Amino acid sequence: MKPTVYVIIPAFNEARSIGKVVAEIPADLVTETIVVNNASTDDTAAAARQAGATVLDEPRPGYGNACLRGIAYCQSSVPLPEIIVFLDGDLSDFPQEMRTLVEPIAASKVDLVIGSRVLGKRERGSVTVQQIFGNWLATKLLRLFFKAKFTDLGPFRAIRFSSLLALDMRDPTYGWTVEMQVKAAKQPIRFMEVPVSYRKRIGVSKVSGTLKGTIMAGYKILYTIFKYI
Fold it and tell me: What are the backbone angles phi and psi of residue 130, rounded to the nearest 5°?
């Protein structure tokens, strides 16, 4: 019997890409696709709704806030999800690859699967130099302090819903992904990585595409790691 899979997509000003992301999600795998419109000033919500997604509004800016809004919705859904997939709304990931993230959880091998861009195929120019360095540093610190062998903090990930709730996620902004990985290592929750493909996103990144975003994200990731030591 196949598991109940829900997809949560935080989206801030992704009107150009969100419909394409939703369209590429495997319909036979996913019960419901949830786009959390995170204080967008463009037509993200309308484009997502037209593509067939459930659209939630989260007026508080912040990646983590959008994820938390999606989780709260899932807690009252019928049926309850067994697996949650988190996916970005910029089409940098390949949604059809989510089968490889879901299958190890459905087979009860692990509870958390991170899609690793480091292990997979990346289109030239899809990842900036500062992203590569920041990711390398963060994963080295995760290994040093928590003995957790990750290669990536990639946002494309799947997790058993009961495990996600047990993590008691809190971070409202850039520290969301690393918080999940730190807490998984500390619980411990069984985790693994699988290679995923990565391409240039549609539009400009709100994080790596600006100096402010890069600095704030780097600070928050490091702060989150040291917070849980």
Answer: -65, -30
Phi, psi of 168 (to 5 degrees): 55, 60
Q: pLDDT digits over 87-120, tens only?
A: 999 999 999 999 999 999 999 999 999 999 999 9
pLDDT tens-place string over residues 34-52: 999 999 999 999 999 999 9
Q: Which of 139, 175, 207 is nearest to 64 (CA)?
A: 175
Q: How far apart are CA 219 and CA 214, in angstroms?
A: 9
List helix spans (H) across 36-117. Answer: 44-50, 63-75, 98-106
CA distances to 59, 130, 199, 216, 217 from 212, rounded to whole Å, are: 21, 13, 23, 6, 8
- What strands lie across the sheet with 112-116, from one edge to the other? 54-57, 32-37, 5-11, 83-86, 157-160, 112-116, 191-195
8 Å CB contact between 113 and 192: yes
The pLDDT tens digits of the residues spanning 123-175 come to 999 988 888 999 999 999 999 999 999 999 999 999 999 999 999 999 999 99
- What residue ranges define each of the domains in the chain, with the CATH number in brackets? 5-227 (3.90.550.10)
SS3 9: strand
Structure token digits, residue 79: 């049926």
Omega before 188 cis (within 30°)?
yes
d(CA 150, CA 181): 8
Mean pLDDT of the chain: 95
Closest CA to 224 of 158, 176, 169, 190: 176
pTM: 0.95
